[in-house]
Amino acid sequence: MKRIVFTAFFVSLCSSGKAQNATARDTLLVSRAEAEAIFLKNNLRLLSEKLNIDQAEAQVIQAKLWPNPRLEVGEINLWSNAKSEQLPPISGNWGKTSEVTVGLEQLIYTARKRKKLMAMEKVGVEIAQEYFQDFLRILKVEFRNNLTHLQYVEEKQSVYKKQLTSIQKLLNAYSNQAKQGNISKGEFIRLKASELEFVKQLSDLQKENNQLQKELKTLMNLPPQRFLKISMDQFVPDVNKMESINLAALTADALENRPDVKASVLEEKYNNRKYKYELSQRTPDVTLLASYDRGGNIMNDFVGVGFALDLPFFSRNQGNIKASKIEIQKSQYMKEEKNNQAQNEVIQAYEDLVVAKKLYENIEASYEKDLDMLLESHQKNFALRNTSMLEYLDFVNAYLENKTIILDSKKELNEYFEELQFVIGKEL
User: What one-character DSSP code corresponds to residue 184?
Assistant: First the structure.
């Protein structure tokens, strides 16, 4: 169930004789899974890309249709002269000297061209489906990495905000002491400089957050005024899932499941069917003819039948046949390259994940808590003047560096896990 928290921020400016103004902003708090469900349902690029499948299916419908018959009416005389022959009237007394011809033509495909075209277009539908799945795969990993990055930025903001709050409390306490001369002004300025550094860091992180908000809200098709917040669940993927990962099985999975690999196989199949269709074009089609002629032949009412076909003396579709045969060779090369690319990408993604996993596992589970507790201890000792400012600020910098390393390891583990899923074309 979606957890949506609506938080309204009201800013009221009141003065005598002036009206009150209020602005409101909605916050959407969701988990990663809930955010992805919204993305899959609402993303406009996905909806647009999916229409390519409908277009390909429409081409199959078109290939099934026979060409329309052609009706031709001609040689209608609008007046007559003294030498005009008298014929039985067409209607009442009208039409005694009127001539008219009517022709009907129907094109008949030979050499099973229609069925071959339908078979080719059906493969086109399969290709469109695989292209859609590949587009979804690319867009999904982009979306998931943006989610991870947003979680990373929000967690980093939380760390810096805590440090900024601590520094500001110390500044409030030291302000009067500096004025009274109990502490040196240099120490106070150094503390003030640290505050400014934190403010600058938070400003940069907020800009990064704003950029991610824009990207994610566009992908999820959310209103511009909405503020997106992702809960920290699933920021780190389940490490236990990675224990059973087998490289040989992953490579086989990639060749079996990746949409771009499957599409390359279908491209070869499509070009083979196109080659057969171009071969069938050597056989000329037949046009069946039926005609009626009133008053223009040896008979007053002449009815005749016939046929027409191109004589393949000069063109037997040689150029198109050769071109389609070359397309088969090209698609074979592309299929082989796509297979090699997929296998190489799996190996790289697997090895990168192993490295990221080792880094994450080298950080003991209790280390982050110990780091937080040690920071609190340094803050208390500094407030009691048991620790010098230089020692305190050095530890704060070391604390922030280590916190960043821990967050980076979690972020990278998530991103490389998603990359592995991306290159094998399925969820692990």
Answer: -
Would you state the torsion angle of the CA atoms of residues 107, 113, 119, 120, taken in this order, to the nearest 10 degrees? -100
Where does 26-77+98-424 sit in CATH, by number? 1.20.1600.10
Instruction: Look at phi and psi of residue 109 and say left if phi exceeds 0, alpha if psi is from -120 to 50, else beta.
Output: beta
When pLDDT is cut at 50, 70 and 90, the band that residue 94 belongs to is low
Helix/strand/coil for 105: strand
Q: Which residues contact 176 (CB under 8 A, 6 or more apart)?
A: none
Token couple for 200:
């600058």
For residues 343 and 135, what is the distance between their CA atoms, to the nearest angstrom? 20
Q: What is the dihedral of CA 288, 289, 290, 292, to 10 degrees?
A: 180
User: Could you count the other beta carbons within 10 Å of the beta carbon of residue 180?
Assistant: 8
* 9: pLDDT strictly greater than 90: no
8 three-class SS? coil
Strand partners, 292: 102, 303
Torsion angles phi and psi, residue 3, rounded to 5: -100, 105
Q: Helix, strand, or coil here: 108?
A: strand
350, two tokens = 């697997």
Element (H, E) at 291: strand 286-294
Provide the percentage of residues in the chain whose pLDDT is more than 70.
90
At CA 28, angle to CA 27 and CA 30, rounded to 5? 145
Q: What is the pLDDT of residues 128-163, one digit of tens each?
A: 999 999 999 999 999 999 999 999 999 999 999 998
Q: How far is CA 6 from CA 62, 212, 227, in A?
A: 51, 20, 10
CA distance 60 to 125: 8
Give the per-residue pLDDT at 20.
36
